[in-house]
Amino acid sequence: MSEEGWEQKYIQEAFDTNWVTPLGPNVTAFETMLESFVGEGKRVVALSSGTAAIHLALVSLGVGQGDEVICQSFTFVASCNPILYQGATPILVDSEKDSWNMDPDLLEEAIRDRIAKRGRAPKAMVLVCLYGMPAQYDRILGIARRYGVAVVEDASEAMGSRYKGRQCGSFGDFGVFSFNGNKMITTSGGGALICPDDQTYEKALFYATQAREPFPYYQHEEVGYNYRMSNVCAGIGRGQMHVLQSHIDRHRAIKRAYETGLSGLKGISFHGNPNHLFDSNFWLTAIVLSPELTVECDDVRLSLDQIGVEARHLWKPLHLQPLFKEVPMYLNGVSDDLFARGLCLPSGPMVSDEDVRMIVEHIRSIVG
Ligand SMILES: *Cc1c(COP(=O)(O)O)cnc(C)c1O
Fold first, then answer.
1. How many CB atoms are located within 10 Å of the residue 222 CB?
2. Within 13 Å and on the Cβ side, how many CA atoms surround 254?
3. Which H or E element spans position 246?
4. Among 12, 28, 210, 327, which is most buried by a count of CB atoms within 10 Å?
């Protein structure tokens, strides 16, 4: 079968066998495929979104009102919103300049300061692999262990990225993937919660399906959610697993092509692997413009827009968002600076070699 035919086969199967409901053979098969992809003996629950997965991780960890949860400030708002859903307080921590993910020194400073102020450490942290780049796992996990802070790893953008050869999403107490439309693979909308063992898997499944107790009638003792992935969406996911590796290869090839095309051009640097331990999927290729250039990143963005190319600003850090203006934050200027000077370039299977050549040429004409 061609690479593209698998989704239709599994969706058709869902209709043919009347499994158009949530639950069903596609969901189980998709979860099994995800488990063997992630490895490390993890269990995986397929859910309706990545946001739902982050939320259920916090629910499973018992995060609630009065708790503090650390969150990387340089990320998409979906990393942090579930902390608010639980009535907990986000504590924003800035990034370090190599990986663009959570700064371990600042993280430790934040935890110590919270202990000094409140007598206890935050309950958990949401650690992000921004644009697919792994975080400084060794140091961050060491700090998390030392202070007893649970780790929720938001690998929504990092499916297929590795650190020391191990898959992102498998490092935290819980891991999260997103299968939204623009992610490495898509189920049209969906996500996955990566769980450490059978027991947490069963419990997450329980919360994802309205927290129904095992009685012959509907019995409820805890708050539940309707977060399960449908069998139709999982059929798409099963199909997408056949193209996952080619998608990852393509994202990486595009990043290399931009880098080759723009090499020698002064004033442009790339979001790249800090060293050989990091192996990003390069979900998006991100560039940073030097302050010495005469053009600013919005000039480049607007100029690309003129030729029909959509480059985007990097995520606006959460500490700059009005929604989070009141929460405690530990900052070092890194994400402010990246936000002011960085752009994401078009990436992914829809972007052709010719597109990359055209974009490179255009950037050279503006910047060079
Ligand atoms: C996409 C994304 C999410 C949320 O995933 P959804 O499936 O859209 O809910 C969470 N965190 C980050 C960093 C993301 O990029």
1. 11
2. 29
3. helix 244-262
4. 327
The mean of the pLDDT values for the chain is 95
Q: Mutate which of 81, 129, 154 to test ligand 1's pocket (most atoms within 8 Å of Cβ)?
A: 154
Tell me the torsion sign for CA atoms 354, 239, 231, 157: negative
Ligand 1 within 6 A of CB of 160: no
* Burial zone of 65 (CB within 10 Å; 0-12 exposed, 13-18 middle, 19+ buried): exposed
Q: Of 263, 267, 271, 280, which is closest to residue 315 (Cα–Cα)?
A: 271
Residue 16's contacts (CB-CB under 8 Å, 6 or more residues apart) are none
- Rounded-to-integer distance, Cα 26 and Cα 80, Å: 30
Question: Which residues, including other chains, have CB under 8 Å from residue 80's CB and lie 6 or more apart?
Answer: 71, 90, 92, 126, 318, 324
Half-sphere exposure of 304 toward its Cβ, with a 13 Å CA cutoff? 26
Per DSSP (E only), the strands in 94-244 are 124-128, 150-154, 162-163, 166-167, 174-178, 191-195
> Which residues lie below 8 Å from residue 146, measured CB to CB, with a gap of 6+?
none
**How far does the chain reach from its first CA to its final CA, in angstroms?**
46
- The sign of the torsion formed by the CA atoms of 46, 51, 52, 54 equals positive
Residue 73 in contact with ligand 1 by CB distance below 6 A: no
pLDDT for 35-58, tens place per residue? 999 999 999 999 999 999 999 999
Which of 17-26, 77-86, 117-126, 205-214 shows the lowest mean pLDDT across its residues? 17-26
51 lines ligand 1 (CB under 6 A): yes
Q: Is 180 in the pocket of ligand 1 (CB under 6 A)?
A: yes
pLDDT at 4 over 70: no
pTM value is: 0.96
**Cβ 328 under 6 angstroms from ligand 1:** no
Q: Which atom of ligand 1 is nearest to the CA of 78?
A: 10
